[in-house]
Design a protein that fits this description.
The chain is an alpha/beta fold and 357 residues long. The protein has helices at residues 2-6, 49-56, 60-74, 118-130, 149-163, 177-186, 199-202, 211-223, 240-251, 281-294, 311-319, 339-349, and strands spanning 16-23, 26-33, 79-89, 135-140, 167-171, 190-192, 227-229, 232-234, 259-264, 299-302, 324-326, 330-331, 334-335, 352-353. Helix 3 crosses helix 10 and helix 6 (177-186) packs across helix 8.
Amino acid sequence: MLGQLASVQANRGTNYFVSGAIRGRRIQLSETRTDVSAKHSAVRYTWTREEIRQIYRQPLPDLLFTAQQLHREFHDPNRVQFCRLLSIKTGGCPEDCAYCPQSAHYSTEVTRGGLLPLDEVTEFAERARSEGATRFCMGAAWRQVQDGEDFETVLEMVRRVAGLGMEVCCSLGMLDESQAERLAAAGLTAYNHNLDTSPEFYGQIITTRNYSDRLRTLAAVRKAGVTVCCGGIVGLGESEEDRVGLLHQLCRMDPHPESVPINALVSVSGTPLGHQAPLDPLIFVRMIATARILMPASMVRLSAGRKALSREAVALCFVAGANSLFIGEKLLTTPNPEPDDDAAMLHSLGLEPLPLR
């Protein structure tokens, strides 16, 4: 059904650039219509934590109204990009991320495996494209990229997926400038490297790398001319101030991450967060809406944890400015809504997929 839904295509609307200033608890919008040569300076990179806190804490109807206005200025509000994520190397990761069932530090049901064969990944990407995905993401459970045969294979995977006309994103752990340049030359569209949470809470979730490690990788990606996919996870046990801190880090990047995935924790037995209480869905909605206001030109993606949300909560996320979701029954190793369920939901909301460009 997703493939049938994807057959309905139209061009994206005209983009606008909006500058926002906080006045009391309201966002004042000044609109400037621009063409493709417009400078990024029309988008703010100087948000303070206090401003973000005020936005996040607005009454929910006000927050959603502002976010939807900005969403319509920058994006077609009735179009959603379909992404497909494949674990090309599963399990055995030396990192100790407290949420991750692929960590070698924890005993979970995830089985460690080697890098998938090139042809198998290519076939999976072709199938994803036929189902309406325009972005194909490949994740490997590595701490960092190592030069050698496996990396050469990943480079060829990138070439093949790019050859299908799809956007290509990789999440391979830390990398250096040379490796980022080689991925760019192979045709990589984006590199995913999430900050996960605020700098203050980070050490309670991960101890095997620090925040600056992540920022260095993002700098290498940006220098190579690859777009940045960077977001975080909510529901880790963080405070509201930590959510504000994560958004503060993201929206002060210049330029903003072109792709901002917002994840809700999927609690997995055997990990330190396996018994974490479920996230209030309205917190997830607030994160989506605030991210849209702070980074209006970015793609805000509904990522992990969507299976636990009701159709009504997902609908609110789209009202809040989300314009992308991951299709398929699994995200790396955790469950995702069934394709037919997604197709029925999107049809009921009157939303259509973004076409291949």
